[in-house]
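Q: Here's a chain of 204 amino acids. Please give me its 3D structure as tokens.
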Amino acid sequence: MITVPVTESEGASTSTLEWPHHLLTLDDWAELPETSEFHVEVVEGVLAVSPRPFFFHRRSIARITYVLDEQLAPGFSAGNEVELLLNEVPPTVRVPDVPVTSASVADQNPARVRAEDALLVVEILSEGTKRTDQVTKHFEYADAGIEHYWIIDLDAPVSMITYRLVDGDYENFGEHSGKVELDVAGMPVVLDLDALIAGRVQKP
């Protein structure tokens, strides 16, 4: 077993989580204890653990999820930090910052979304995960057939690279900053990238 220290609250004693020391099955993954201290995924049966992102990152996730959910066609729904099943045996389960799936799938309240049900995945870069987002997940999401992949960099000026699947590989469909209008499943989506890290979002 793998033991990972977890501090339950400030001033409280440290406990440990015990995780299997072998290639996981999907059932093993589903039975793992939850932790608020780490971002945990599984890649070909192997646990991938990274630190939780900082405040700006989390706030940006909430903002872009809201903007997408408000502007997407009624048949689609955006969520945040939802498990995305890329492969079942051995399991690869990623937890992207913002996945977009069909409203019919979202309405089922699934434990995880299958790759074939994902239209778009958004990842926001953070220290320790940049290479994973830019290289590893870039390949995994393309291999799983996810049509759109956006990568956002919160370092000023905030920027975003949009990729679209063409003949099985992602092609760069634009590098953006400031306000941008994009087509997602036939609907225009307007994003103000600078607003993702602004202190307060100005209401129209």
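Q: Can you summarize the key feature?
A: Helices lie at 26-31, 55-71, 103-106, 130-143.
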